[in-house]
Design a protein that fits this description.
Layout lengths: L14 E5 L8 H6 L2 H20 L3 H12 L7 E6 L6 E3 L12 H16 L4 E3 L8 H10 L7 E6 L6 H15 L4 E6 L7 H13 L3 E7 L3 H10 L5 E7 L11 H8 L2 E5 L13 H13 L3 H9 L5 E3 L6 H8 L8 H10 L13
Parallel strand pairs: 4-5, 5-6, 6-7, 7-8, 8-9, 9-10
Antiparallel strand pairs: 1-2, 2-3
Helix pairs in contact: 2-3, 2-10, 4-5, 4-12, 6-7, 7-8, 10-11, 10-13
Bound molecules: NADP nicotinamide-adenine-dinucleotide phosphate.
């Protein structure tokens, strides 16, 4: 996604868990089964994914490896929710992205199914944008949520090039039509553009006043830009800021997350897997991930999602266009990494020790 360059928590952690299926917690004895053999499986599985993407390895073998590690894994029976900033609305800490879900008829069918499976598992925070597939992702999201609108915390975004006052109103209208709904839960300015922020925010306020959106937010905004957006709003509060956040991109932990926490603005981290740039599992960091995963009887991706949602007021929205991936991702919540494991990951993937510009995909 080549975006043009942008110019130039919250209340305490009110976490709620929603049980979505019978618990099949692993017996303690299963832990002992997780010895070096299992670690090898984790390593080979992760490596396989990496090689598969680069080298065209088949999915059948990939599935076989996935099945090898299913036995000892804990189940995905609980989805964690927390208050979405000051709004007080409880939203699952893990949601679903929709960037690049468009494609062939068959891949779109699978992507819609994956979104529905995710909703069944409680991953009801669905993120889309008019930009994704030129509106196609919104149409597919509309298909996925048809008949289930009330279950979903639905988010879309206006392109900066449409974000004049009138342009924002019209863009929202088009998004609602594609999504087959009469309102969005959250509407974001995708990134800062050349239209005056005040115009965009006034349009957001009007949309909220008229019930077409519940909350207004921004995306790819650093602290200074968030302050400007807050100042531009006259009678509504900024609800959220959606920003890049993954293991090797933790710059927002220095200033942005603390600022948003203080202001009770939800932080939604996007591209938790680095837009499919996971650390190679045969690298030093990859081995650490695999060890933590093994210790917790979780997959590497589940560990990553859990780590990225450990801070109050922070949410994540992995994209998965295959139901088995969605199921795995759902297991990233409903449990807690120990302080020791958080420390281990923190050292393996350190946050920068100086201010860095906000990353952006
Ligand atoms: N505001 C912004 O500017 C902005 C920018 C970028 C992204 N976003 C939002 O954030 C969402 C997520 O970011 P992203 O799409 O860039 O990347 P991502 O979530 O970091 O990674 C997506 C990739 O990971 C794969 N994947 C997901 N779960 C998996 C699993 N359990 N096992 C194996 N592979 C798995 C997906 O494969 P499959 O599709 O094959 O399942 C896909 O290739 C986007 O979809 C979008 O909604 C927002």
């Amino acid at each position: 996604m080549a975006k043009s360059q942008p110019p130039a928590a919250p209340r305490g952690p009110s976490k709620k868990c929603r049980r979505i299926g019978p618990s099949r917690s692993a017996a303690p004895s299963q832990e002992t089964a997780l010895q070096s053999e299992s670690l090898r499986k984790y390593l080979s599985r992760g490596l396989f994914y990496t090689l598969g993407r680069c080298g065209g390895l088949g999915t059948r073998a990939e599935n076989r490896l996935a099945q090898n590690v299913q036995g000892p894994l804990r189940d995905n029976g609980v989805v964690t929710q927390r208050a979405f900033g000051w709004t007080g609305v409880d939203v699952p800490v893990i949601g679903q992205g929709t960037w690049m879900i468009e494609g062939s008829r068959e891949s779109e069918r699978r992507a819609v199914e994956a979104l529905r499976v995710g909703m069944d598992l409680g991953l009801t925070h669905i993120d889309t944008a008019e930009m994704y597939g030129n509106g196609r992702a919104e149409e597919l999201t509309g298909e996925a949520i048809a008949g289930r609108r009330d279950e979903v915390f639905l988010v879309s975004k206006v392109l900066p090039s449409n974000a004049s006052y009138d342009g924002t109103l019209r863009a929202c209208e088009r998004s609602l039509a594609r999504l087959g709904t009469d309102h969005l839960d959250l509407y974001l300015l995708h990134w800062a553009g050349s239209y005056p922020l005040g115009d965009t925010m006034r349009a957001m306020e009007r949309l909220a006043d008229e019930g077409q959106i519940r909350f207004a937010g921004v995306s790819n905004f650093d602290v200074r830009q968030v302050e400007a957006a807050q100042a531009a709003l006259r009678h509504r509060r900024l609800a959220a800021n959606q920003v890049l956040y993954h293991l090797r991109g933790r710059g927002i932990e220095r200033k942005l997350i603390p600022y948003c926490r203080e202001q009770q603005i939800a932080v939604v981290g996007y591209s938790p897997f680095g837009h499919e740039a996971l650390p190679r599992l045969d690298s030093a960091g990859g081995r650490v991930l695999a060890e933590v995963a093994q210790r917790n009887r979780r997959t590497v991706r589940q560990v990553i999602l859990n780590f990225l949602t450990r801070l109050p007021g922070v949410f994540t929205i992995p994209k998965a266009s295959q139901a088995e991936h969605t199921r795995e991702n759902a297991g990233g919540s409903g449990w807690t990494l120990s302080a020791e494991d958080v420390g281990v990951l923190d050292r393996a993937f350190p946050a920068p020790n100086r201010d860095v510009p906000l990353g952006m995909l």
